[in-house]
Write a structure and sequence with these properties.
The chain is α+β, with helices and mostly antiparallel strands. It is built from ten helices and nine strands. The strands form two sheets. A five-stranded mixed beta sheet has the order 5-4-6-3-7. Strand 4, helix 5 and strand 5 form a beta-alpha-beta unit. Helix 3 crosses helix 10.
């Protein structure tokens, strides 16, 4: 687990592996090894034996890092076996309550008039919610101030306190504040609306045709893991995600179960590498000193 305990990726891992452990009659231990923008854990996985006993739950950060850093101790799309996608996570664009906008159209007009005063938060430079906002800002030809925080809870608290104007985040992290009327949802980042807020329009239908960005998670294994073991774990993941209890639990937290074949997940990853790389290069984002 390339993140610390208690975050969204960690929660998904513990929900899914519990079912896999039961079905395969094989205990799964979640080892949190955060730091280095997921590079520390990813490099460690690349050096482990390809025996099927060591896997990593990864996220879109693995794809983004290819363009955020000039050098990495691995080649992401070559040095691992891709097993399956796990979940897809739409991101909701939230505004602080006293920002005088209630729709995307009003936000666009407000940004055009107040661009130099606008700020937005993220849970770290190069994170999916950072890149999603930069993609939107690029279409607006705007450069609002980016304020990175160490995780979603701190960014949400900053928005609640009025220290930033906008934030893209997963719905699970912010739904209580939205339902309590403490934050204003303006749009969702995926091409389709979300079931929890069916009246909330997408960014694509709010004047930005084709806009479709989201966070995702999946599983990878060390390069050279035998194909039958890759297929076995992929099938076990699908069984877990097709379980109605698990699917309902994930949906309630804002995650959409999205199992896939190894080939489908690798294709998704390669496309993500390109799409996120395009955003990173067009907006001159880097994490290299």
């Amino acid at each position: 687990m390339p993140y610390g305990p208690g975050g969204g990726t960690d929660i998904v891992a513990r929900i899914v592996t519990q079912n896999i452990s039961t079905n395969l009659k094989q205990p799964f231990i979640v080892e949190n090894r955060g730091g280095g923008n997921t590079i520390i854990a990813t490099q460690a996985l690349s050096k482990l034996p390809p025996d099927g006993y060591s896997a990593m739950q990864t996220a879109d950060q693995l794809a983004a890092n290819t363009s955020l850093y000039k050098e990495l101790p691995y080649v992401a799309n070559q040095d691992f076996e891709f097993v399956s996608s796990l979940v897809k996570t739409p991101l909701v664009l939230l505004a602080r309550n006293d920002l005088p906008v209630s729709t995307m159209k009003e936000l666009v007009a407000y940004i055009q008039q107040n661009e130099k005063k606008m700020s937005y938060g993220s849970w770290g430079t190069g994170s999916m919610n950072h890149l999603t906002m930069e993609a939107l800002a690029g279409q607006l030809k705007a450069t609002p101030l980016h304020v990175p925080y160490a995780g979603a809870p701190l960014a949400i608290n900053a928005l609640l306190g009025g220290f930033i104007d906008l934030l893209f985040t997963d719905l699970g992290s912010a739904l209580p504040q939205v339902q309590a009327g403490k934050l204003k949802p303006l749009a969702v980042s995926t091409i389709t609306r979300i079931t929890q807020l069916p009246d909330l329009p997408t960014i694509a239908e709010s004047g930005f045709p084709g806009f479709d960005l989201y966070s995702y998670q999946g599983v990878i294994l060390p390069k050279g893991t035998p194909a039958d073991l890759v297929a076995k774990l992929s099938a076990a993941i699908k069984v877990a995600l097709d379980n109605p209890t698990i699917a309902n639990d994930l949906n309630a937290r804002g995650y959409i179960p999205s199992p896939s074949t190894p080939a489908q997940f690798k294709a998704q990853f390669i496309k993500s590498e390109k799409d996120l790389g395009d955003i990173i290069r067009s907006r001159n984002i880097t994490l290299d000193k």
